[in-house]
Amino acid sequence: MKRFRFAGECEKDASPDLYIYDRPDRQGVIIIGDEVSAGNLTCILRSTFDDAVFRKPLQIKQETSDLYVHGSATDIQLSNLLNMNFEYLPCVNVEFPSLSKRELDEIRATITPTVTGHHYYKACGGRVSFMVDIAERMLEEGCPRDEVETLFRENIRGLFPREGSKIRWEHVKITGQLFDLGMAKIVRFDEKGRRMVLFRRFFKKGFYDGLKIPKEEGDYAVTEVRIGDFSFKTRYFSRNGEYKGTYININTPVELYPAKIRYVDLEADVCVWPNGEIRRIDFEKLEEAINHKLITERLFKIADGEIRKIMNSLSLEEERNISFEASF
Length: 328
Known about the structure:
This protein is α+β, with helices and mostly antiparallel strands and about 325 residues long.
């Protein structure tokens, strides 16, 4: 109330129509309330945030003073001191990827001093989040923004991965399931250009998703990622450096965190096979996401445009003739 300068009288005898909880991972919010109010807020969020993702949890259950939201990705425990029964109220789990975080920053900055990248850095947690609080207190006290932000970036830089670091790979589905794709080594990192080359080697047999070709022991993958892009490219090679195919993932803008990269997978992908075939796959899953209102119309158009751009720029010879093994 203080931040928004609401009069104290507004709090008296007020019965809220909505309850909004930060998700524990700071990647979004949980909205709980009556059907009309929850629907209106969801409509506003859809029209405001380009890459927001909307999910409905499977179950809401209240136990003593805690509220549990089951489904989406993981069970979420939310503090509920009001001791109210939310079991039959609409509930929406909203994720805010990179573009949404920036849009939230702009909105927050109209109310209170805000560090550039506030919502992204708060989602980093730990010391990075703590440093955000310190920087914003300095802004509130009137310290020059340029000096504060320069000092802030200098203090957190060492907390982020660099060339040679190993990082986790957090692959989030539109419906909320979270997949840890294992560890990757950053073998090249152009920090100014925000471009990384990641290396992974495989020790178990299986099949490559999308390509549906055998994964053999000793195979390796080289992924080119630009932080903030709506896609990234992974090339697969045998242990002897023979090209096995390329898989191009379509996703919300890639984000780099202190120990991981993270994005929401948009289901549709582009594949290149050694025989020259180039094809987009699973586009119907992206269409299904928009039909079920899990993503915004704007995000659908961005993803569709990204696929078209990729399909028009791919070169089989370039894919086939690049081998990175010697660099590692």
